[in-house]
Q: What sequence folds into this?
């Protein structure tokens, strides 16, 4: 198997979800750092337009969205299990809670006065203005509104309190061992904790903080730095494709030119030839670096696929 390459930036919370999972699996992986905001030409050369972070590359196969990335990692390395069969529904529910409700509640908290001051210290006023404009563009379309302070203030405290209560008598959210649920809930907590201006929002939740320390102690596996040109060369030089899941019946036939786009936010469309649609995954093929074919994989949930021109 070709090595896992993660295209990410250090401060990306969704990247931390994947980095923590890689650590739990004790996997070796290669790191390509990408810009925090658009433009991201080296990334888009692989994805065809998808801009959200992170993206995972294995040879000339490109995986978008952390839900799909996590399940691909689970398939490649099932031990220790991150999605135990006995807890599948609970993992899915808590992943949705972490990735959506908790993350979206954490975002406006970053812009409370003390949090904003910390961001200005890190990015500068101009850098922060560019970051905010980029994220406004991210939420400009799609069916998820950009979260605001009122949403954060209503959702964040009760969510943190519920997690703290659940962690009072157990090490991890579903028992003695971590699962993908832990990594999906951890990344918004990690995001808040990483901003010194608002980290004290977590002080009232000692069980949550102790759990976050346990997740952090897992680490990130064995990371090796790579640059974008090297990642592109790997895509060009790889000859094999990664296995595809079993196809299911669909109105669009393989070979159809299609567009695929997220429906929630970050809705830039990617165009290519449909390779396959499975129960949970859809795959298109397009020209990547040096006109080499690459396959881009998307989850079916929260993404739409249409014949190009429809």
A:
């Amino acid at each position: 198997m070709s090595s896992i390459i993660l295209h990410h930036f250090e401060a990306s919370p969704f990247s931390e979800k994947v980095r923590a999972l890689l650590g739990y699996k004790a996997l070796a992986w290669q790191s390509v750092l990408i810009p925090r905001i658009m433009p991201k030409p080296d990334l888009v050369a692989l994805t065809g337009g998808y801009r959200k972070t992170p993206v995972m590359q294995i040879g000339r196969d490109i995986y978008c969205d952390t839900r799909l990335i996590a399940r691909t990692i689970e398939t490649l390395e099932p031990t220790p299990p991150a999605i135990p069969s006995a807890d599948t529904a609970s993992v899915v529910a808590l992943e949705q809670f972490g990735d959506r409700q908790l993350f979206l509640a954490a975002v406006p908290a970053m812009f409370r006065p003390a949090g904003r001051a910390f961001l200005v210290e890190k990015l500068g006023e101009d850098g922060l203005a560019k970051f905010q404009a980029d994220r406004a563009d991210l939420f400009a379309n799609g069916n998820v509104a950009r979260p605001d302070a009122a949403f954060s203030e209503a959702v964040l405290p009760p969510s943190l309190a519920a997690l703290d209560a659940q962690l009072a008598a157990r090490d991890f959210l579903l028992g003695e061992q971590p699962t993908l649920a832990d990594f999906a809930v951890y990344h918004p907590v990690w995001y808040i904790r990483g901003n010194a201006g608002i980290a004290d929002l977590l002080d009232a939740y000692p069980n949550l903080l102790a759990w976050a320390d346990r997740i952090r102690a897992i680490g990130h596996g064995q990371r090796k730095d790579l640059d974008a040109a090297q990642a592109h060369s790997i895509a060009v030089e790889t000859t094999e494709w990664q296995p595809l899941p079993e196809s299911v019946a669909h109105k669009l036939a393989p070979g159809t030119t299609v567009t695929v786009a997220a429906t929630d936010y970050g809705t830039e469309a990617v165009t290519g030839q449909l390779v396959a649609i499975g129960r949970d995954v859809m795959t298109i093929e397009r020209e990547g670096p040096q006109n080499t074919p690459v396959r881009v994989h998307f989850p079916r949930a929260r993404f739409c696929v249409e014949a190009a021109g429809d």
Q: What stands out?
A: The longest strand covers residues 270-277. The radius of gyration is 19 Å. The chain has two domains: 4-79+223-307, 87-218.
